[in-house]
Design a protein that fits this description.
Blueprint (H helix, E strand, L loop, with lengths): L9 E4 L5 E4 L1 H8 L3 H9 L6 H14 L18 E6 L5 H16 L3 E6 L4 H11 L5 E5 L5 H8 L4 E4 L8 E5 L1 H13 L4 E5 L6 H16 L3 E5 L6 H13 L4 E4 L2 H13 L9 E6 L12 E4 L2 H17 L10 E4 L1 E3 L18
Parallel strand pairs: 3-4, 3-5, 5-6, 6-7, 7-13, 8-9, 8-10, 10-11, 11-12
Antiparallel strand pairs: 1-2, 12-14
Helix pairs in contact: 1-2, 1-3, 2-3, 4-11, 7-8, 9-10
């Protein structure tokens, strides 16, 4: 996923009064980094050093990169009465809850809702949107796998809001994991844990980059060790498969990209007769309904999914009806919290036996 290098990004008045196009190359030159680094800083924030990323953001703000909100052409007299929502995986209860919240908000405003399941695939996402675009008045992209440039192009044709993805010039609604992850790490540290593993989500996921960078920053401040295990899918089987890699170099605490991966990972440990939380403490992110029903019940970072879905829908309707004056569309951040359950406990002073691995 790359940002558009040559398209108009933002504009700053020149001495002659003629707008000057600000591009990704201008940001790169001012920040003294490569254009590819700027691209990654915006599209995949977890893949760039935190200090470098912050310098890029500061420079971008200073020179006006993508400071102008992208506006779509819409006409209240020719509405279809239908919104669209794109979800990455409808079988994931997180996206099911987003969809239900969006539908309730639509119905209360006289709109229907068209649901598009991208199956974690950018090609399917792009194709399904193309087929639906003439029939909808606005679009919600939930954890989109499209490029920044592709989303900006969409936003020029239809009112659009992104969920859990920040793109300059486009309104976004984001579940902020900062508070919840900080509480989770502090809780684990109070139980004696000093070594952590993060089970990552999809490489193309903006959320995964933010979660990794946030967790890295927290652990660094608290002088805790952290490593990362990549996963090919944010699913139960994806979490299960990380178990073998983890056991090659185990830590006492694990934080997963989402609850479903965490539950799959616990299943992998149980298949090796490794106790949770007796030998390894595990934390998820999301707080889906069945996280409290599995054994052991999963400690997790709770995100306000219903509020996220409702707020995203409300923002799209505002764009359609021009009921909100927007110039610089800053992300709307909804806070997380940490829920303690049975999957976390005191750090075991004895490492997992190599024989059992």
């Amino acid at each position: 996923m790359t940002a558009d290098n040559n398209n108009q990004a933002g504009s700053t008045p020149a001495a002659t009064g003629t707008p000057v196009k600000i591009t990704i190359r201008d940001v790169a030159k001012a920040a003294d980094v490569a254009p590819s680094t700027v691209s990654r800083a915006f599209a995949r924030p977890g893949r760039v050093n935190e200090a470098t990323a912050q310098r890029i953001y500061d420079v971008a703000d200073k020179i006006g990169y993508r400071a102008t909100a992208i506006r779509a052409h819409s006409n209240d007299d020719h509405l279809n009465g239908m919104l669209g929502i794109v979800v990455a995986d409808l079988s994931n209860p997180v996206f099911a809850e987003y969809t239900r919240a969006a539908q309730h908000e639509c119905l209360s405003n006289g709109f229907g809702l068209l649901v598009l399941d991208s199956e974690e695939n950018a090609v399917i996402e792009r194709t399904s949107i193309h087929a639906a675009i003439q029939h909808i008045d606005g679009l919600i992209l939930s954890s989109s796998r499209l490029s920044d440039a592709g989303i900006r192009k969409l936003a020029q044709t239809k009112p659009l809001v992104t969920m859990n993805r920040s793109i300059r010039g486009i309104q976004s609604v984001i579940g902020d994991v900062q508070i919840g992850l900080t509480q989770a790490v502090e809780h684990l540290a109070s139980l004696g844990h000093r070594n952590f593993t993060y089970l990552s989500g999809p490489e193309s996921s903006w959320q995964d980059g933010v979660r990794w960078r946030t967790l890295s920053s927290i652990c660094q401040r608290k002088h805790l060790k952290l490593r990362r295990i990549p996963s090919n899918a944010p699913t139960f089987s994806g979490g299960f498969r990380t178990g073998e890699v983890f056991l090659n170099n185990p830590t006492s605490a694990v934080i997963a990209y989402n609850d479903i991966m965490a539950i799959g990972f616990i299943a992998a440990l149980h298949s090796r007769n490794i106790g949770v939380p007796g030998e390894v403490s595990v934390v998820g992110i999301d707080d889906v309904q069945f996280s409290s029903l599995v054994s052991p019940a999963l400690s997790t970072v709770r995100l306000p999914r219903k509020e996220l879905g409702s707020k995203a829908t409300d923002e799209v309707l505002n764009l359609i009806h021009h009921t909100k004056q927007v110039n610089d569309r800053k992300p709307i951040m909804l806070q997380s919290s940490y829920v303690v359950r049975a999957s976390t406990g005191k750090a075991n002073p004895s490492p997992i036996s190599a024989i059992r691995i």
